[in-house]
Amino acid sequence: MALSPSVALADVVALDRVVCCYPDMPALVGAAAARAGRLLGLVYPRDVWWVRAGVRVGNLGLALQRSAFRIFCHPTAAVDAAIRQAGLTQRLRQTRGMWQVVIYARS
Q1: Secondary structure class of 64 (helix, strand, coil)
Q2: Are residues 45 and 96 in contact, defined by beta-carbon separation less than 8 angstroms?
Q3: 44/54 Cα distance (integer angstroms)
Q4: Where do the domains of the chain lie, and which CATH numbers do they carry?
Q5: In sequence order, which residues have a C-beta less than 8 Å from that of residue 2 and are 6 or more positions away?
Q6: Average pLDDT of 48-76?
Q7: Taking residues 47-58, what's their average pLDDT?
Q8: Which letter, b or e, does each residue of 75-97 get, where b requires 16 or more Cβ atoms within 10 Å of its Cβ?
């Protein structure tokens, strides 16, 4: 995140299965949205009970292995709010298994 102010704008920014690996979701998606000139695409876990349960089990396994890495299932509404705050609007949302694919565009 320390480098984000120095990263140039891009027409298209994609976060493919990155949001679930980062604890500070508002900072991550806010920085990505600020650098997206036209489109921002994300693939991240769906905010449904069975995915949240799977994430908990996965994190338990990581803790038992003494790994500091954790998985996150950020609330869809919070991700959407952080991106809309940067001036983008949702154009597409699809789900595939545990994942959701969302495309935002700058007006």
Answers
A1: helix
A2: no
A3: 14
A4: 10-106 (3.40.50.150)
A5: none
A6: 98
A7: 98
A8: ebeebbebbeebebeeeeeeeee
Residue 87 corresponds to which tokens in the numbers above?
A: 């001036």
Residues of the chain by 3-state class (helix, strand, coil), percent to 5: 40, 30, 30
pTM above 0.70, yes or no: yes
Residue 32: name the closest of 101, 66, 79, 70 by CA: 79
Cβ atoms of 55 and 72 closer than 8 Å: yes
How distant is the alpha carbon of residue 30 from its chain centre? Answer: 10
Write the single-letter amino acid at 1: M
pLDDT per residue over 81-105, tens digit each?
A: 999 999 999 999 999 999 999 999 9
